[in-house]
Amino acid sequence: MAQAKEKIVYVCSSCGAVFDKWSGKCRECGEWNTLEEEIQKPVIPSKAPHARQSSSLLSSAEQKSIRLKDIPDGMTDGIRIKTGMHELDRALGGGIVKSSVILISGEPGIGKSTLLLQLAGSCCTSGMDSQSADGCPDGRRILYVSGEESAAQIKLRAKRLNVQNDTLFLFCETDADAILAEIDSVKPDILIIDSVQTIFDRSLSSSSGSISQVKQISQLFISRTKSCDMATVLVGHVNKDGAIAGPKLLEHMVDVVLHFEGDRTRSYRIVRAAKNRFGSTNEIGVFEMTGEGLEEVGDPSMRLIEDTPKNVPGACPVCVMEGTRPIIAEVQALVSKTPFPTPKRIGNGTDFNRMSIILAILEKRLGMRLYDKDVYINVTGGLRLDETSTDLGIAAAVISAARDKSVPADMIAIGELGLSGECRAVPGTEARVAEAVRMGFNKILLPQRSYEKMRSKSNEKLLCPVRSIFNLSEYIGNDQN
Length: 481
Ligand code: TYD
Ligand code: MG
Known about the structure:
- This protein has helices at about 85-90, 110-125, 150-160, 175-185, 210-225, 250-255, 300-305, 350-365, 390-405, 430-440, 450-455, 470-475, and strands at about 5-10, 20, 35-40, 80, 95, 100-105, 140-145, 170, 190-195, 230-235, 255-260, 270-275, 285-290, 295, 315-320, 325-335, 345-350, 375-380, 410-415, 415, 425, 445, 465.
- With about 475 residues, it is of the alpha/beta class.
- The protein has a nine-stranded mixed beta sheet with strand order 8-7-9-10-6-11-12-13-14, with helices on both faces. Strands 15-16-18-17 form a four-stranded mixed beta sheet, with helices on both faces.
- The structure holds thymidine-5'-diphosphate (TYD) and magnesium ion.
- Magnesium ion binds near residues 112, 113, 148 and 194.
């Protein structure tokens, strides 16, 4: 019998479209530079076709339309599975929803496998008392599929994390059919695939991790998840730009996309929802990587400012909103005379353009001489502050650093700066002020308009109105450098 030949095809990493010829622009989705070469072998029939089910995302029993009001309220009871990790539950909007698919991505070594093993450990029993009608009296069944580590390696980590559950099953396999068959036999409540890039489908010729494989594998697990009560967590690698490796389509296919962020060299880790079909995407979960795995940080403000030295020039606390949660962090600035013709501007944890605007406002409106000085801005704890509410704090830190005068130890600055130096109100001021009061700040600098609104409240004595950058300057001592 003549053997069918291998063929080179070009697959778009954005939409997954397949072409015979390479071109700079994808003809399907219009993206540039997204076509990648793949070798396509002839299709080999799957060894275990019985393990697969219909690719329909709907349950086969429910093919007719139904009136929204006819859906019984009780149907949503117990639909969320609490993970037992409050910070993760918070990022997920209250827990893992049954029959949903979560994609979690992050840089190598950030702690994805650690997080999921801990989740598997705490999820087995979490909330079981209230949901004993679940049908799994001996704890929730979790199937942890690893394509990256051996059972012994995972056991070693589990010991370190103190994860020991009778209903946690490990399966070290990379063949999709074998995994589907194992799902049939274990019947897990939660399936964890670590990672989607290491699993391959025999019917496709391309190597695991290629765009077509990732798309196919995801589709397989998504359709299996939607057809039963099981929830699935997929781990996704990121490419060098920080985007999830594989087709962009993958993010559209899943229900929740979580990004696990943080600086590998620092201990703080943040789980951020980039997409959530069942909750808000603004919420974050904060963790700290310790010797015994990830520890939840329930009070991030306290952690972020407790170790910062007081009365040091160039530091000012700010308050950002992460979803509904206000978090206090410290902005540090260093201003020093430059030996170079063009001064350096380095911002770590801040938006560079925003930082340039604030420096320009300080030069133009306050007449500060910064053009012959290097300016470095850093945010403590490895946090990224992209909010304009930190403008006032950044300006205060720079003024303080340039004058070598510290801001008062109990001062915090909340507000946005306009180009003419005016201070503008920001959303969520009440929550921010409440957090600042809780953390013991006695001088809360806030825009005049917010002050007017809030002055009737009990903590008027602590509020300091700031109309413009000139008022701000007065709080930091005004002998010019
Ligand atoms: P890992 O979960 O393997 O990362 P990923 O799956 O995202 O690649 O985490 C690896 C890092 O976490 C590794 O550098 C060591 C660190 N770590 C700890 O600091 N403490 C721990 O208890 C564990 C399990 C890992
Ligand atoms: Mg891993």
